[in-house]
DNA sequence: GTCTATAGGGAGATAGAC
DNA sequence: GTCTATCTCCCTATAGAC
């Protein structure tokens, strides 16, 4: 399945909003603004203006501003879990699966859903404790994918560190790329960056 | 020089505030609150209450709230640059120097200055563009230390990836530990965590 | 150097017309 | 489903007394 087909099927199941609809467009703009200015500095007036309505009208779609933040995060995790699963299925060996996961996460962070992924990392504290608990449940599915693959590499003796530590280090390292990686400025492509991450972990690029 | 001696000499040079003085205590509380609730959600009333004064009195010490954020960041970088330099001087080989840097940065992030280090990472966007430029200058000195060591390892053929990419990955990975690493809960000591990071990079622990 | 009091501005959210 | 109008609250920062 292509990335677009995955998105379409999630929309059909009502797990993520159609980016063409009113709700989907708002969430997309919200992700952009939250990433750019931070959740707190983004006002409901900013959000409304970004989709061309008045601030009062927002509250027809969402009860509170925080509900918007939560929706951005929930839909992002749902989409990316599906993308990761698809990326892994195409790979055969644990090493190839790891590469697929790294590549897919870098793509999530630096591609179309990058703004929402950055929000997930940097605006976490702005989410209420209750909402955090809900979102964490979804995250566990996603993390299990990684731990399986890293565990297999560890069993093969090709990974010297503990899988759960490596996963947490990679979470930080890959998320952080959003602050510095600029593919459009030339230099490093997404595949090149993936090669660098694999090389850092001791897996030389196979040309 | 011990860590405490380094701190004392920076205080003597007026490069960081004495934690016992009024300014130093405020900055320490500010770091704690900014880390806990975020800069935007922390009010000047919160800051004042944390040191037992009224909000209006704060503005006798700092002209604006943002000036407090900037001071937290500047003093943190100054202290940590000095700590890193000292940590490196004690090591001989590039590998040992890398370990010393990793250990020192993990200690900065998870030790006494951890709150301020986390603020540096997570509240960056809350700093005005002008202040960001000032702080970035200080950061360059700090980063050069890392690139020298990673470059030496690369020359030795013991590092497969590009030094500047590895440094950025490590910045993310090590900063991220602040969100999950809890030494007091047992399990992993700071040295153990350092070993894990080194192992991840392909340098087995030497017992 | 700290206090009290308050100015001045925006913030999130609501109500009811269309 | 969007508009206008507005409520209420709380934020940063200032002023002047002590």
UniProtKB/TrEMBL annotation, chains A, B:
Output this protein's name: Transcriptional regulator, TetR family
Matches recorded under InterPro entries: DNA-bd_HTH_TetR-type_CS, Homeodomain-like_sf, HTH-type_TetR-like_transc_reg, HTH_TetR, KstR2_TetR_C, Tet_transcr_reg_TetR-rel_C_sf
- Annotated Pfam families: TetR_C_24, TetR_N
* Keywords for the protein's UniProt record, in alphabetical order: Coiled coil, DNA-binding
Give one GO molecular function term. Answer: transcription cis-regulatory region binding
Q: Where is the HTH tetR-type domain?
A: 20-80
Question: Per the UniProt entry, what species is this protein from, by scientific name?
Answer: Marinobacter pelagius
Q: Which residues bind DNA?
A: 43-62
> Record's superkingdom?
Bacteria
């Amino acid at each position: 399945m292509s990335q677009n087909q995955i998105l379409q099927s999630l929309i059909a199941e009502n797990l993520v909003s159609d980016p063409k609809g009113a709700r989907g467009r708002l969430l997309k703009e919200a992700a952009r603004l939250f990433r750019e200015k931070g959740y707190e500095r983004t006002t409901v007036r900013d959000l409304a203006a970004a989709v061309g309505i008045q601030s009062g009208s927002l509250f027809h779609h969402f009860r509170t501003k925080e509900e918007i933040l939560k929706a951005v995060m929930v839909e992002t995790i749902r989409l990316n879990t599906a993308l990761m699963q698809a990326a892994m299925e195409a790979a055969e060996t644990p090493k190839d699966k790891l590469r697929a996961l790294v590549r897919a996460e870098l793509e999530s962070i630096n591609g179309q859903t990058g703004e929402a992924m950055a929000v997930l990392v940097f605006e976490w504290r702005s989410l209420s404790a209750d909402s955090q608990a809900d979102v964490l449940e979804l995250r566990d599915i996603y993390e299990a994918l990684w731990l399986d693959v890293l565990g297999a590499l560890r069993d093969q003796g090709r990974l010297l560190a503990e899988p759960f530590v490596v996963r947490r280090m990679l979470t930080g390292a890959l998320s952080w790329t959003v602050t510095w990686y600029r593919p459009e400025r030339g230099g490093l492509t997404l595949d090149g960056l993936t090669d660098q991450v694999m090389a850092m972990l001791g897996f030389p690029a196979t040309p």
